[in-house]
Amino acid sequence: MIKPVTWHLFALHLNELEFNAEQLAEIKIAGKQLCIARVGDKAFACAAKCPHAAMSLVSGYVNVQNQIVCPLHRYKFSLENGRNVSGEGYFLKTYPVEEREDGWYVGV
C-alpha cells in the first residue's frame, strides 16, 4: 500500500534557507531531517544522511549531472530519484518538491 503524500511548506522563498556555498541546506520537517539542494531555480529534497555511512549530505556537493555527492566516500546519488549512480547499490530517499504561488513545499 502506498502512503499518501502530505505537503509541508518549508519556505516562502528559497532565499530564506541558509544554503552553504554548495547550495545545500538542512531542514527538519514532519519529524524528518532533509537536505535541500538548490540547482538554479529548482529545489530537490532528499534524506539528510547518506544511506551508506550516515554522513551528513549537506557537507557534500552537487555535481554538474545534478547528483548529490557524499563527502565521505564520494558516493553519488541522483537528486531526481535517489538512484546510486556510482555503482555501490545504495538508494537515497528523495521527496517531491513543488513551487507554488504561496511558497515552496515538500511532500513527505
Task: Note down, in words, how this protein is organized.
It is a single chain. The mean pLDDT is 96. The chain is built from no helices and 10 strands. The protein has a single domain, classed as Rieske Iron-sulfur Protein, CATH 2.102.10.10. 0% of the residues lie in helices and 41% in strands. By secondary structure, it is mainly β. A hairpin with a 4-residue loop joins β5 and β6. The two termini are 15 Å apart. It has strands at 7-11, 24-29, 32-39, 42-47, 61-62, 67-69, 76-78, 94-95, 97-100, 103-107. The strands form 3 sheets. The protein has a 4-stranded antiparallel beta sheet with strand order 2-3-4-8, with no helix packed on it.
Report on the biggest sheet: 4 strands, antiparallel
Give the % helix.
Answer: under 10%
| Overall morphology | globular
CATH class category label: Mainly Beta
Number of helices: 0
Strand order within the widest sheet?
2-3-4-8
Strand content: 35-45%
Radius of gyration: 13 Å
Average residue-wise pLDDT: 96
Low-confidence stretches: none
Determine the N-to-C terminus distance.
15 Å
Structural class: mainly beta
Give the ordered list of helices and strands: EEEEEEEEEE
- Quickly give the CATH architecture: 3-layer Sandwich
